[in-house]
Amino acid sequence: MAHQDIELMAHLMRRAGFGATYEEVERRAANGYEATVEELLSPMEQPDLDRHLLDRYFVDWKEMNALEVNQAYLTYRMINTQRPLQEKMTLFWHGILCTGNSKCEHGRQIQEQLDMFRVLGMGSLRDLLLELSRDPAMVFYLDNCMSHKDAINENFGRELLELFSMGVGMDGHANYSEDDVKECARAFTGWTITNAIPRYPYGRYASQFAFNAADHDEGEKTFLGETGNFGGEEIIDIIARQPATARFVARHLYNFFVADEPQVPAWQETPPRDPEAIKMLEDAYFESNYNLSAMLRTLFNSDFFKNARFAKVKSPAETVAGTMRLVQDFTHPKPGLHPIAMEIRYMGQDLLNPPTVEGWHTGAEWIDSGTLVERINFTADQIGNTALPGVRAIIDRLSAEGVTEPQAFVDRCLDMVGSYQLPDETRDYLVEHVEKGGQLQTGTDDYGHRVGQTLQLIVATQEYQFA
Amino acid sequence: MTSTKKDPVLVVLQLSGGNDALNTLVPYGDPLYADNRPTVRVSDEQVLPLNDYVGFNPSMAPLKELYDQGKVAVLQGIGYPNPNRSHFRSMDIWHTCEPDKVGLEGWIGRAIRDVDPQAENVLTGVNFGRGLPRSMAAPQVPVASVGNLETYGVLTGIQDEERDEALELFSRMYSPAVGRGNVVDYLSHTGMDALKGADILATAPGMYSSTVEYGNDTVAQYMRNIAMVHLAGLGTRFLYTTAPYNSFDTHAGELSAHAKLWSDTSRAISTFYQDISEKSASDNVVLLVFTEFGRRVHDNGSGTDHGSGGVAFVIGDRVKGGLYGEYPSLAADKLLEGDLHFNNDFRGLYSTLLEQWMGLDAKPIVGGAFEQMDFIAA
């Protein structure tokens, strides 16, 4: 297997999933890059997690009420999914089409929204936005249930345009007017939710979407230059055809999968960092009738993606799920999952509870002196634990390969955690450190210990904080 | 740090979950209290009276002692307009001073930036607990967030001499280098801040000795850590900690849970003051104790649900003790959707602390001019 194929596959799995062990990377590289992309794009061909088994073990997953329970469940999924791109796209949409626990009837409601993202998140954007507009958690979160024929509430109508589909502007001009916001909100009047079933005695149930025709504004509306008796569905049809929508989704995909872009509010004035790449994604959007999988196929098979190694700061979710996948812990239900899930919060990403409807700021904004320490210590503690199966496998592998020469030892350790590359100076420090520890001898306890120690130092580097 | 006049220090204790104001500062003189609290009620005989209308919960005896010494300002009816009854959102509002839109910068983060605009001291603000509360977050403001002071630091999982070597390597790897790009530079800088902060903080426990004994609960242990850092003279001006996540959220079994919470909390506060007073280090410290909201006036048979209009405390040698603001009326027609109606904006409380105590301009920090109170002695 050519080294460059392994490196490229490690890159793909980090971005299109939550990373992979070296064995998985090798297996997938042997299968071929394009075949792997296709496999990732067909999640339904892989088995889902066995919910029945999980519910029997994690009893509070039955009700899915508390935020922490939902976070643990999502964390478990990210660690164990066999449909990594589907789960990654769920995280992608969760960060854009935001609903937060801070304003939510109860946790299950957001979890059901994420299930909807799992089903629709890689299909047509039009279908996704339509279902989002009917999603009970969203209807409640952005007050569409408070928007009435005679008294509109603009909250959902505005965010649908500003944050979920088009963005405020591009190429220096605005994408829509204040009148468009009002007309959009009018079209969604009557899109509401039923009253939830009372909590007692059977526990909490999620609300359902309901269309209240009597509260729907039937009047004529003019939206983005088109006039008609529009309802929400027609509004979404119009949104889906806008070049601004293609641009907005393309930039989000680029920011999430390829390289860190400026934060979203800057997009009206700041051009994309790679306009040609964005253009390719926009074309894929229109050619495929707004299909996300088509955009992703273009993206993952492009040179701009393949060349964008380590151009993104890992999110806390990627950091924690990626580490657990690497060390192969919590691959089965067992106690202690909750503290692992909480690490994501400590690193600054309170999943299912984004700070605002804008989602999380990404890139370098993940890092401050507190979150950096959390990140390094957590990762180093896990990877330095030589009792964990994934770490054990790395030790056994290097031992079997007979790696004892310090430079090769450092390089192979870097390969094992995802083919990372360090600046020469940093690599030299690590090599010196290994040399100082004396002759390496495979098959000894000292060997395993020093693999663990070297991995700990690698995950503490600046470079390892990037994906 | 070199000045002979001691700089003022603000300590904040956040009671997460929504502390029940009615069972903390009990309006035992109002018959409506008993009417509204058929089960979740503190009995008249047990209340520690402050006057013939209100008194402390009986588990707050240590705080009552400080009150009797004139060191506790009790801020009644504290809150903000259009109260939000979500823990997260309401706490965000207290953290960011942005009740109408969602803000990202915390009020203490902004205050730290005012005190130390060049970020010369990475320990101007120190938080105790896992994860940084938004109140302390602001761009370019380094804040140390300490889960455990005794073991705080980078790469703490590595033992003994190996750790020394690892840290030595870490500081070489994170030293600024040319041509590695903005984000790597930023990471390097942040990593060095963290390392520097951890090195300095690590000296604090060694310099500390005390005759007083703190409880084993989280708040007490963090108040002890706060005392250590304060006494170590590291130039820290803002110290922050939080009672365990949502512990004050007493929907059920409130009477026993709430009594335990306040007995721990008031003992922790009183021990803290005793500790730093013995070392003549209490005269430049003021402690703010707050929560995100009060609880519903009428009980639910076992506990109380989310409400509004809470109570906060400001404690210190330089505090003019007593009751501030008015106790919100319990009369049915004066309630706001079944909750106490706030009459005292928390941003006025913050402004008082920032201007009269910390000597800062409060307006840009809290987002406007709010009526200040008179609880800081000149």
CATH class of the largest domain in chain B, named Alpha Beta
Strand content of chain B: 5-15%
What percentage of residues of chain A falls in helices of 4 or more residues? 40-55%
Low-confidence stretches of chain A: none
Approximately how much helix is present in the residues of chain B? Answer: 25-40%
Low-confidence stretches of chain B: none
CATH topology of the largest domain in chain B: Alkaline Phosphatase, subunit A
Lateral arrangement of strands in the main beta sheet of chain A: 1-2
Number of helices of chain B: 11
Shape of chain B: globular
Largest sheet of chain B: 9 strands, mixed
Beta-strand segment tally of chain B = 12
Order of helices and strands of chain A: HHHHHHHHHHEEHEEEEHHHHHHHHHHHH
| Overall pLDDT confidence of chain A | 95
User: What's the total number of strands of chain A?
Assistant: 6
- Helix count from the secondary structure assignment of chain A: 23
Radius of gyration of chain B: 21 Å
Biggest interface pair, counts: A-B, 48 and 46 residues
Largest sheet geometry of chain A: 2 strands, antiparallel
Structural class of chain B: alpha/beta
What structural class results from the helix and strand content of chain A?
mainly alpha
